[in-house]
Design brief:
Blueprint (H helix, E strand, L loop, with lengths): L6 E4 L5 H11 L12 E7 L2 E10 L5 H7 L3 H7 L3 E9 L8 H21 L5 E6 L7 H5 L3 E5 L5 E2 L2 E2 L8 E6 L4 H6 L18 H6 L20 H13 L5 H9 L3 H6 L3 E3 L2 E3 L3 H10 L2 H15 L6 E12 L5 E9 L5 E5 L1
Parallel strand pairs: 4-5
Antiparallel strand pairs: 1-2, 2-3, 3-4, 5-9, 6-9, 7-8, 10-11, 12-13, 13-14
Length: about 350
Amino acid sequence: MQLNQISVRPILKQEEPKYQDLMEAQHYLGAIPKIGETLWYVAYSETEWIALISFSAAALKCAARDSWIGWSYRHQTGRLKLIANNSRFLILPTRHDKNLGSRFLSLCLKRLSNDWVEKYGHPILLVETFVDPKRFHGGVYRASNWQAIGYTKGFRRVTDGYSAQTEHKKLIFVKPLHRRAQSVLSHTILSHHFLLGEVKMKITRHQMRSLPDFFKEINDPRRAQGRRHRIQTVLGIAAGAVLCGMRSYESIFDWAESLSQKSRAHFRCRYDKGRYVIPSLSIFRNILVRVDPNELDAAFNAWNKAYAQDDNSLAIDGKVMCNAIDESGRQTQIMSAVGHTTGICYAQKK
């Protein structure tokens, strides 16, 4: 059989029992149920089934993969849907043609992202798989230019979480389906081209215009000479970024860079040479480090009060602040009141 005679397609609904029976009988791990976002494929020649493969939801936790991507936990939880896990791969015993496995895998990956968009409404940027080194060395994946990035820790998923004892570790392979998969997944702001269920918060045009007004009375810690951006603009943009989920100076600056010219005008950014210019990263850091925290807290409370009517209920949430030690040497803990509808933090108490 010539490899160019092989075709690949998703399993049809009426074919799923046959697919499961073959997996249960022939794969050393057996069949797995179709849970969540899953696609099953078959390689065939004319009417003969040659090989089967399954792609399902990515592993919730995988230290080597998460380190390779370089994303934060907050982004990870929302963007896992952009990763698929090759959970089963079976070449049926009637076929042992040379290079069949890598050919089948290549044909599947060429169509996987488009098929995922059609079925689930979002693309796949990265595929992962776990290989048991006691059984296989991952030759099919290496031949298909997958990258080995490390080993699992040996825990496995069970009904109520993860197993208490470690088992033998598995080798982790990844294959980007997008040329910038690593940078897209780890970037502070996800491109609008990638549709998925990541939780997002947005602020309206009116809120953009109103935010700077609440910071007018705050004393500017900078010297008067050389000020290029008004403090109410800097703090207004920073507050808007935090309301939309940004949590670091770099992410605040990235969020500011993504603002359109109209949005920058709403924040009253400096107008220079026909364009609205945002403050630099160093300006955001300098002002946020040096501004009076009591004045800033009062300004936030005033803004919260103005928009509090949008929330009918509040959620109370406690957090331990990592690396924040108080004067008595104890780790700082805070309690926050957050609006259910708006997601606004109305108050925090140590």
